[in-house]
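Researcher: Hi, I'm a grad student and pretty new to this. My advisor asked me to get structures for two proteins we've been looking at. I'm not sure of the right format, so I'll just paste the first sequence and hope you can take it from there.
Model: That works fine. Here's the first sequence with its structure tokens right after it:
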Amino acid sequence: MPNPYFSFKQFTVWHDKCAMKVGTDGVLLGAWTDVSNANSVLDIGTGTGLVALMIAQRCNADIFAIEIDNNAVIQATDNKNRSPWSERISIIQGDFKTFESNTKFDVIVSNPPYFSNSLLPPDIKRSTARHTNELSYYELIEGAAELLSPRGKFSLIIPADVIDKIIEIAANFDLYPIRQTNILPKQDSSPKRVLISFSNKKDTIFAKPNDLIIELARHQYTPEYIDLTKEYYLNM
């Protein structure tokens, strides 16, 4: 039986009530996202609350985490209440497509639904979590653009094969790529995921994309991956 929780150095994430469990994608996004000088953060589709908790660990911002699934909201609320940063994290149940806020966010993050062209899995909750049926990339990017503060940053992790589409959609809403990391599971593999960050300022510089390899061999992690995640993983 799978473990109902995942322990990190400073907090524990329970995921037994959630369709999507703690995984590498969320850890990568939470560790990679630039939160320097952030006062307000929005996590879209927080699930267990993992990314919100990771960001809370390394900044003093107020964090708002929105999630549509009731069980995930309950789980994320429990997880944040057990953490050292419960007073700075607010879990909001709702549909991002109808979400409104007077706050403009310095950082917006999302580990969005994906695999939009694959067959739907039988479990409807898993379908909502894994596919773009509930929230399309277009709706996600449009909403994020409206909620970014001046010189705010929007960061997400996506399948590598949709990166060109994402950049194209973002341009429609005056969001410009400023940072990109291609994620390779192993040294001889092609990128499977991409971490990308956007700014709403056209004059920002797009740094040359870099590659991050996760493993050299089974459970033998690269120095770069260890350096990125060592403040979180227990055995890094």
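Researcher: Oh nice, that was easy. Here's the second one.
Model: And its structure:
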Amino acid sequence: MIGYVTVGTNDLEKAAVFYDRIAELLDTPRMMEDPGNFIAWGKPDGGAGIGLTKPFNGEPASVGNGVMVALAARDEDHVKAIYDAAIDMGGTCEGEPGPRGEGFYAAYFRDLDGNKLNAFVMKMG
């Protein structure tokens, strides 16, 4: 159902380094770019992508309270690798990798602009 999610940034160049690394770990390339304004990562035939943009209205980007982008990982080791990369690049911890209920394993972090993300894997049955 979801085609893509966009998060705001106040420093596109710096934030792009953060998201390029996370996208690399998810085997997801840049698929669209408007230099200086917008970058999108995704696969035309894949699931939902993520976009990074300076706000169109020219006002500073801010974080939405209760808003989070969830990134599907392959397994628990992949969750940890994504989390570790985010923290190594200056992201902040919002919950270290671990189980979060039956069949759900996740790690939570914020990007350089304070946008909340998680990497997760679900094991049903």
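Researcher: Is there anything I should tell my advisor about the second?
Model: You could mention this: Residues 4-54+68-122 form a domain with the 2,3-Dihydroxybiphenyl 1,2-Dioxygenase; domain 1 fold (CATH 3.10.180.10).
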